[in-house]
Amino acid sequence: MIYDCQPNGSNLVKMKQVINLSLAPQYPATETAQARSELIIDQQPCGIVIPGSVLEAAVEINPGRFVLFVTDGISYEESLTIVLYQRGEGVQEIIHIEHAYSSGLFEQLALYHDHIEFNFLGEARWSLEVADRPIFALPFIGDPQYVKRSAGFKKQLLITSHETRAG
Questions:
Q1: pLDDT tens sequence across 105-145
Q2: Alpha-carbon torsion (6, 16, 153, 144), positive or negative
Q3: Whose CA is closest to 48, among 84, 77, 17, 16?
């Protein structure tokens, strides 16, 4: 599925799910560290190592700019790592969604004109917006429960969540 994204200047940019990215395991998970894998684009290693071992989905936000959804493949305590990657510039931001002793299943990815939605951690429906450039944000304030990110005053990945209930 391809959906229109926000206009970029006078050009309309298409946000789309892509399949030309994959991961090559580099470091296995340990009791204290997440697995790490090298990013492969068009079957070519790019020298970028990111957390995780299973690429659940990759979305191209605009040419050469990707949001990667990565897990570790641990069914009893799964976490989701979301990586913002810019070709030629590297990793721009990483956030984690995790809750101890909870199993998460990444599913129901949907692309909209200005955001991405998906399910993870039970009945939680997540919404992710990607800012064109870093915006000012106070550390540890504004993210939903279970979201972890490095401390800093800027972010590009803007995430919200809400519980869904079967009717």
A1: 899 999 998 999 999 987 789 999 999 999 998 877 788 88
A2: positive
A3: 84
